[in-house]
Design a protein that fits this description.
Length: 245
C-alpha cells in the first residue's frame, strides 16, 4: 500500500472527509473492480434494485450514494427524473463522464445526513452499498424519510450476513483474503477494499437493519436475500397521511 492510499484509507470511524477522499481515489476503476470482485453479480444486484424501485415516467427518484451513477442510469431508462447524489466529487465526476448525456439524470453533491432537498420531494429513494459508509446511518434513514412523498418507496441494497454458517465462512474468507487482492490486481486502492471488508463485518444483519428502517418511520418494511444473503434488498414505504402516521 502506498503512502497516498494509506492516507486515503477510511476506517470504522467513517470520517466523511476521509471516506469521500477514499472514494475519489477509486472512482475511475470502481465499476471495473466491482465487477471483478463480485464475479459479475453486481449487475444482477443492480437489476434487482431497479425492479424493486420500479421507476416510472414522470416520477422523481433520488439515488443516494450513487457513486458512478450506474444504478441512476438504470432508473433513468424508465423515463423518470433521477437525481444521482453522492458526497464524493470524484465519483460524481466519473458518473457525469459516463452518463451525463442523459437528459433526465442530474448530479448533486450531498451529505446523506443533511440532504439539500425539500420535504416530500421524491416518489422513490434508493441507496445501494452506501448506507454502510455513512457515519450516522439512522440519521440518513430519517433524512430519506423526510424527502420522500407520503406513499413513496424506499429501497436499500446493502452487503449483509448470510444465514448459512457455511456461506458466512466462505464470505468472510473471500472478503478478507481475496477481495483486497482482486482490487490491487485491478489497479485500485487495495486499502479501500480492506476498509470494505471491515465495514461489512461491522454492519448489522438483515433484521437489525429492518428495525432501523422501522424506527425511522417507514412502514411495510421487508427484505429479501440476494446471493445467499451476501447482499440483502430492503424495501419500505412512507405512510400516507390517511394511515395516521
Amino acid at each position: 500500500m502506498t503512502p497516498e492510499s494509506e492516507a486515503n484509507r477510511a476506517d470504522l470511524g467513517k470520517d466523511p472527509d476521509r471516506v469521500s477522499r477514499m472514494f475519489d481515489q477509486v472512482a475511475a476503476g470502481y465499476d471495473r473492480t466491482n465487477s471483478a470482485m463480485t464475479v459479475g453479480n453486481d449487475a444482477l444486484w443492480r437489476a434487482a434494485a431497479t425492479r424493486a424501485v420500479a421507476p416510472k415516467r414522470g416520477e422523481r427518484i433520488l439515488d443516494l450514494g450513487a457513486g458512478t451513477a450506474s444504478s441512476s442510469a438504470s432508473f433513468a431508462a424508465s423515463g423518470a427524473e433521477v437525481v444521482a447524489a453522492d458526497f464524493s466529487p470524484g465519483m460524481l465526476a466519473e458518473g457525469k463522464r459516463r452518463h451525463g448525456h442523459l437528459p433526465n439524470l442530474s448530479f448533486v453533491q450531498a451529505d446523506a445526513t443533511n440532504l439539500p432537498f425539500e420535504d416530500n420531494e421524491f416518489d422513490a429513494v434508493s441507496m445501494s452499498y452506501a448506507l454502510r459508509n455513512v457515519q450516522d446511518p439512522k440519521k440518513a434513514l430519517r433524512e430519506l424519510y423526510r424527502v420522500t412523498k407520503p406513499g413513496g418507496r424506499l429501497v436499500i441494497n446493502e452487503f449483509s450476513t448470510p444465514p448459512s454458517a457455511l456461506v458466512r465462512g466462505f464470505y468472510r474468507f473471500y472478503n478478507s483474503q481475496v477481495l483486497p487482492r482482486v482490487a490491487r490486481v485491478a489497479g485500485t486502492n487495495g486499502g479501500a477494499y480492506d476498509y470494505l471488508n471491515e465495514s461489512i463485518r461491522d454492519w448489522p444483519d438483515q433484521r437489525r437493519l429492518a428495525a432501523w428502517i422501522r424506527e425511522a418511520g417507514w412502514s411495510n418494511v421487508a427484505y429479501r436475500n440476494l446471493s445467499f444473503g451476501m447482499v440483502a434488498l430492503h424495501r419500505a414505504t412512507k405512510p400516507t397521511k390517511s394511515s395516521g402516521s
